[in-house]
TrEMBL record:
It comes from Brachionus calyciflorus. The keyword Chaperone applies. The lineage of its organism: Eukaryota, Metazoa, Spiralia, Gnathifera, Rotifera. GO terms for biological process: protein folding. The keyword Chaperone applies. This is J domain-containing protein.
């Protein structure tokens, strides 16, 4: 039989979120190792209550546990035709759950009967009071298309964060929308910081949430600095005789670019001011760099080869014709002698 998380917190299945928090708070304080040193039974209860709270305080885990029990929770269950839920594994550290709930390792520091513990800064006692530390920044990728960076846009990012309840001891999860105004020309690696939007705790300063700009892969372009790189396929014949190529832009235009030079391997054409906006002055832009991918024919018949030889190796063709003429003359002389 699987674990009974409701029994571990001494609550019923009809318990609400506030009931779950209150039950965990009571049990965690009663069986905390600080109050019960070297007591194995208390240590076990402390750990069981932490795991039970970790499951029941999370709506998704609670829903899976209520329907499928511990086995379904820890093995994963189907959520639709193609996907399963992630298997749940307890972190194994009840002190981590306790710390996240209370915001510190020693909730007894506020009580006079535990004043002897207050001198320990490691346990959030008097020596550490008034010295709240901020949690490390939380970084998230902000994936942007080249069009979004080219034109600028508004992005709304939904986060879920732990906030302190009015009682100052318990907390709950709430969703919040963060609005990011994407400026034209933002480069990959640009960091946008929302101060103290991380999880709240009674004895800590919420972490900053930092979004880091990343480029989404683009089907046509890639960017290098403020320049856009475009690859144009071109048949070998047109690479030799010239052509006009039609190059799209991020703002929907099409540029007609005449190519009069012979396109060799490594040949590029630069179109000024058709790249990405410059972050320091969005009215100015980088360049559009056109690279060429020369397509060679897969097959040539003898006539094709002869034609190319005449066009590209005229001297070799003349020597071949001269050699043939000499052979004809020699054959005629031999015939005359006979």
């Amino acid at each position: 039989m699987g674990k009974d998380y409701y029994n571990a917190l001494q609550i019923t299945r009809s318990a609400k979120d506030a009931d779950i928090k209150q039950a965990y708070r009571k049990i965690a304080l009663n069986f905390h190792p600080i109050k019960n040193p070297s007591d194995k039974h208390a240590a076990d209860k402390f750990r069981e209550s932490a795991e039970a709270y970790d499951v029941l305080s999370n709506p998704k885990r609670k829903a899976i546990y209520d329907q499928f029990g511990e086995e379904g929770l820890k093995s994963g269950v189907p959520v639709d035709k193609n996907n399963w839920s992630d298997p749940y594994t307890f972190c194994g550290d009840p002190h981590k759950i306790f710390h996240e709930f209370f915001g510190g390792d020693n909730p007894f520091a506020d009580f006079n009967q535990h004043a002897e513990l207050d001198k320990s800064e490691n346990f959030g006692g008097l020596a550490g009071r008034g010295r709240k530390k901020q949690d490390p920044p939380i970084e998230r990728d902000l994936m942007l298309s080249l069009e979004e960076v080219y034109h600028g846009c508004i992005k709304k990012m939904k986060i879920s964060r732990r906030v302190m309840n009015d009682d100052g001891h318990t907390s709950s999860f709430k969703e919040k929308i963060l609005t990011i105004t994407v400026k034209r020309g933002w480069k990959p690696g640009t960091r946008i910081t929302f101060e103290q939007e991380g999880d709240q705790g009674p004895n800590s300063i919420p972490a900053d949430i930092v979004f880091v700009v990343r480029d989404k892969p683009h089907p046509i372009f890639r960017r290098e600095g403020a320049n856009l790189i475009y690859t144009q396929k071109i048949p070998l014949a047109l690479a030799l005789i010239g052509t006009t190529i039609h190059v799209p832009t991020l703002d929907g235009r099409v540029l007609d670019i005449p190519i009069t030079d012979i396109v060799k391997p490594g040949f590029t054409r630069s179109i000024p001011s058709e790249g990405m906006p410059l972050i320091e002055d969005p009215n100015k832009k980088g360049d559009l760099i056109i690279e060429f991918d020369i397509e060679f024919p897969q097959y040539l018949n003898s006539d094709n080869k002869d034609f190319i030889k005449r066009a590209l190796i005229p001297n070799a063709y003349k020597k071949e014709e001269k050699s043939k003429k000499q052979n004809v003359q020699l054959k005629s002389l031999n015939s005359f002698e006979d």
